[in-house]
C-alpha cells in the first residue's frame, strides 16, 4: 500500500472550530484527511501577551488618532509564529505544509518542506476595497505588505479562489505565475440536499428572495430592499427574507422577514436554515465588497441562482448563466428587479438556471472536488 503523505496543517486557528474563517479551516482539514493524506494540526496559536498588546494598540490608535492598526498582520506576531510552528514541525516527519489564510504565520518560517498556501485575496487587494484597511496607520500597512510578500515568496504552491486574487499576487508581490493555481473552495454543507427535495419549489409562488449576510451595508442590503420595492411596483409577487443581520429601522416592509441569526452548530437552527434554503428561489446579494463568498456555494447546492455583484473575487464562484448573474457594481434595485423578474417569469429559463446551479455545485463547488484537486497537486511532488 502506498504511504499516505504526512500533512502539517499550519494555522493559528483550531481546525475543528467550524467558525474559523467562515468554516474554511474546518472543511479544508476534513477534505485533506479524506483525499490527500494524514493531517496533523500544528495550531492553535494564540499568544495572549502579543495579541492583547496588539488589541491595546489598535484601541488607542482608533481612539486617539482615528486610524486602525491590524495587529493580526504585525511583524512581532509573525516572529512569534515562526518560532512556535518551527518547533511544532520538529515533532514529527512531514511531507508538506498546508497553510490556509496564514500569511503572518508563514512570514519568517524556516523550512525545506513545500508549502501549499491558500488565500482568497491579498493584502494589496484590501487597500481601497474594505474601509478598515484604508484607515490603517501607514506603518501597519507597511507591515501588512511585507508579510504578504514574504509569505508568498516562501510558498511553492499558491492556491487562490479567483483570478482577481491571483492577479494581485503577481502584480503587487511578484508571485511566479507557474506557482499559482486557481480553483474554488466548497460549500460548508455536511450532506447536500437530495434534488427531489429542492426542485419542486420552482413551481411555487410567490418568488422567494434570500439576503444572507451579517453586514447589512457591505452586503448590499439597501439595494436588496430597493429590489423588493421595485418588484412590488411592477406588480411582481415577491418575498424577501433577511438572515444574519438586523437592518436599520427604516428598512421595514410587510413582505420582508428578518431572521437575526441562525447557528448552524445548533441542530434545530441548522434545520431551520436548511428549510429556508429549500424554499428560496434566488439568493439576492448585491455585495459591495467580497473576496469569494461561501454563501454562493451553499446556494448552488440548493439549486438557488445567485443574483449578485461583479466585484472582487465573486467571479471565481458565480458564473453568468450557470449559477446566477453578476451585475455591474453601479446597478440599483431596478436593474436587479428586472433581472429577477425576467428569469422567474420564464419557467424554462428559471428551471435551467436552477438545475445548472446545482450541477456546478456537484462538479466544482464542494469540498470533495477541492480535495481531489489538492491531491492532484500533491501528487506532483
CATH topology of the largest domain: Rossmann fold
Number of domains: 2
The residue-averaged pLDDT reads: 95
Cα shape: globular
Question: What's the helix count?
Answer: 15
| The level-1 CATH class of the largest domain | Alpha Beta
**Biggest sheet character:** 6 strands, parallel
Q: Please tally the β strands and state the result.
A: 12
Can you list the strand order of the major beta sheet?
2-1-3-4-5-6
CATH architecture of the largest domain: 3-Layer(aba) Sandwich
What does this protein look like?
The protein has 15 helices and 12 strands. The chain has 381 residues and is an alpha/beta fold. The chain folds into 2 domains: 6-186 and 366-378, 3-Layer(aba) Sandwich (Rossmann fold); 195-363, Rossmann fold (3-Layer(aba) Sandwich).
Annotate the secondary structure layout:
Elements: E1 6-9, H1 24-35, E2 38-41, H2 48-65, H3 75-89, E3 96-100, H4 103-106, E4 115-119, H5 123-126, H6 131-134, H7 138-153, E5 157-160, H8 163-173, E6 180-182, H9 195-198, E7 207-212, H10 221-233, E8 238-243, E9 256-259, H11 267-279, E10 282-285, H12 294-301, E11 306-309, E12 324-327, H13 333-344, H14 347-363, H15 367-378
Parallel strand pairs: 1-2, 1-3, 3-4, 4-5, 5-6, 7-8, 7-10, 8-9, 10-11, 11-12
Helix pairs in contact: 1-15, 10-13, 12-14
Amino acid at each position: 500500500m502506498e504511504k499516505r503523505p504526512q500533512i502539517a496543517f499550519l494555522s493559528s486557528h483550531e481546525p475543528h472550530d467550524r467558525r474559523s474563517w467562515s468554516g474554511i479551516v474546518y472543511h479544508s482539514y476534513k477534505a485533506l484527511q479524506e483525499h490527500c493524506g494524514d493531517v496533523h494540526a500544528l495550531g492553535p496559536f494564540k499568544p495572549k501577551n502579543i495579541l492583547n498588546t496588539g488589541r491595546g494598540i489598535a484601541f488607542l490608535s482608533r481612539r486617539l488618532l482615528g486610524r486602525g492598526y491590524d495587529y493580526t498582520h504585525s511583524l512581532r506576531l509573525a516572529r512569534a509564529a515562526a518560532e512556535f510552528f518551527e518547533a511544532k514541525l520538529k515533532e514529527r516527519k512531514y511531507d508538506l505544509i498546508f497553510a490556509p489564510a496564514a500569511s503572518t504565520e508563514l512570514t519568517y518560517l524556516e523550512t525545506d518542506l513545500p508549502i501549499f498556501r491558500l488565500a482568497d485575496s491579498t493584502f494589496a487587494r484590501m487597500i481601497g476595497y474594505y474601509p478598515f484597511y484604508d484607515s490603517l496607520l501607514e506603518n501597519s500597512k507597511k507591515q501588512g505588505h511585507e508579510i504578504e510578500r514574504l509569505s508568498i515568496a516562501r510558498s511553492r504552491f499558491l492556491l487562490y479562489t479567483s483570478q482577481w486574487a491571483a492577479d494581485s499576487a503577481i502584480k503587487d508581490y511578484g508571485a511566479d505565475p507557474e506557482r499559482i493555481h486557481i480553483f474554488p473552495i466548497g460549500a460548508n454543507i455536511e450532506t447536500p440536499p437530495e434534488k427531489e427535495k429542492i426542485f419542486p419549489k420552482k413551481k411555487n409562488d410567490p418568488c422567494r428572495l434570500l439576503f444572507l449576510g451579517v453586514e447589512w451595508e457591505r452586503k448590499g442590503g439597501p439595494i436588496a430592499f430597493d429590489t423588493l420595492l421595485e418588484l412590488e411596483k411592477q406588480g411582481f409577487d415577491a418575498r424577501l427574507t433577511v438572515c444574519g443581520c438586523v437592518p436599520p429601522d427604516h428598512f421595514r416592509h410587510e413582505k420582508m422577514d428578518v431572521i437575526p441569526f441562525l447557528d448552524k452548530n445548533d441542530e434545530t437552527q441548522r434545520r431551520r436554515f436548511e428549510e429556508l434554503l429549500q424554499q428560496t428561489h434566488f439568493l439576492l446579494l448585491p455585495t459591495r465588497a467580497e473576496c469569494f463568498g461561501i454563501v454562493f456555494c451553499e446556494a448552488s447546492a440548493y439549486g438557488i441562482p445567485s443574483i449578485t455583484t461583479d466585484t472582487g473575487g465573486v467571479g471565481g464562484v458565480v458564473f453568468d448563466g450557470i449559477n446566477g448573474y453578476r451585475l455591474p457594481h453601479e446597478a440599483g434595485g431596478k436593474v436587479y428587479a428586472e433581472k429577477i423578474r425576467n428569469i422567474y417569469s420564464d419557467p424554462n429559463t428559471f428551471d435551467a438556471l436552477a438545475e445548472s446551479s446545482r450541477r456546478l455545485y456537484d462538479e466544482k463547488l464542494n469540498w470533495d472536488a477541492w480535495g481531489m484537486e489538492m491531491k492532484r497537486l500533491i501528487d506532483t511532488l
